[in-house]
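Running low. Got one?
___
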Amino acid sequence: MVAFWEAASVEDVTPENIGFIESIADIEVVIVGTGKRTKMLPPETIKWFRERKIGFEMAPSSTACATFNFMCEEKRQVVALILPLTA
C-alpha cells in the first residue's frame, strides 16, 4: 500500500496525520524518514506509538528507505513514513 500525506516536516508527523496506520494489521515497526538528518518526533506522536504498542524508528529519509526495503525482503510487517530530504 502506498499513501500520500501532507507532512512536509517532522512537526507534521502528528497523531492526526498518521492515524491511518491503525488500519494496517500486524505492524512490527514504523520507520520514519525525517529528512536529511535524524530528528525527534513530536512528544504526542511518540506517546501515540507507545500507547498502541507500535514500534517505531527515526532515521534520515535515505536510511529509512534502505531499512524499509531490507525489512520487506525479510518479509516483515513494516510501514515507512518518509519525509522529503528538504524537511
